[in-house]
């Protein structure tokens, strides 16, 4: 009986496996190189120079202001602007600023706080409510409202100052705090910002789930949607607060009584004293008052930036 002779089998070559190993090694090396380049991005000399110029443009005026707030009136006029004088008079200047003219600076500061709390706070509240309603509800005329809001954003506030003055004059509201507070309640940019933010930050499915669970519209907004809007609210609050705090032209045409001046108008009145007959030059108090004016804004930015940054980073990483 014949037996079949087994045919010898040729062992498979390991070359393809080696080639695939080398290819994997190259791919791993490329991945590591890309990860390393992502961790350490390539530096741009041009971008560094431009950023440095912007930084100098922003910090040099602030440094000049702080340095000159430490000088007396004589040192202010005789010393170099970006260096300190012979004596350090910062605390003395602060004391004089707060007590000059029966402490009118404190009154101006409180007026500004009043305008910011009622004006900027009210503008933020209206922007949040209006933006949420425009973003998550459908109603007739929504496109028309959108066109009006966009048109209002394009119109500068100074163009509306004179018509606002004429209207308030007919109503008898000029030279009162309401003539500054009421126009500050309207922020077309804040409304548009909250509109676009609410449209992206609040999932419609989340609102529907809350309604299915029995929550009414007020509870859905307060407990479900409002926490998601926190970064946008902080952003609008910062914008409106800075705009109201630095508002100059509107109080200039609305107010005549110095007792209702904000800080911007009051410091300008102090600065103008040197140009009036018999007026006292108090430039050192004007500069010190300017430093005291920007301190609350800096504190507000430092306190609120964590909410702002968390909102900017939300959704940027997919898990």
What does this protein structure show overall?
74% of the residues lie in helices and 0% in strands. By secondary structure, it is mainly α. The chain is globular. The protein starts with 14 loop residues before the first helix and ends in a 6-residue tail after the last helix.
Please outline what is shown here.
The protein has 14 helices and no strands. It has 319 residues and is mainly alpha-helical.
Question: Could you give the topology of this structure?
Answer:
Layout: H1 15-39, H2 45-68, H3 73-78, H4 90-136, H5 142-154, H6 157-171, H7 178-184, H8 188-201, H9 204-212, H10 217-228, H11 230-245, H12 249-254, H13 263-272, H14 283-313
Low-confidence blocks of residues: 1-21, 313-319
Number of helices: 14
Q: At the third CATH level, what is the topology name of the domain at 110-247?
A: MetI-like fold
Broad CATH class of the domain at 110-247: Mainly Alpha
Rounded to the nearest angstrom, the radius of gyration is 31 Å
Beta-strand share of residues: under 5%
Instruction: Profile the largest sheet.
Output: none
CA distance, first residue to last residue? 70 Å
| Average of the residue pLDDT scores | 84
Write a concise keyword list for the protein shown above.
disordered C terminus, disordered N terminus, 319 residues, mainly alpha, MetI-like fold, 0% strand, globular
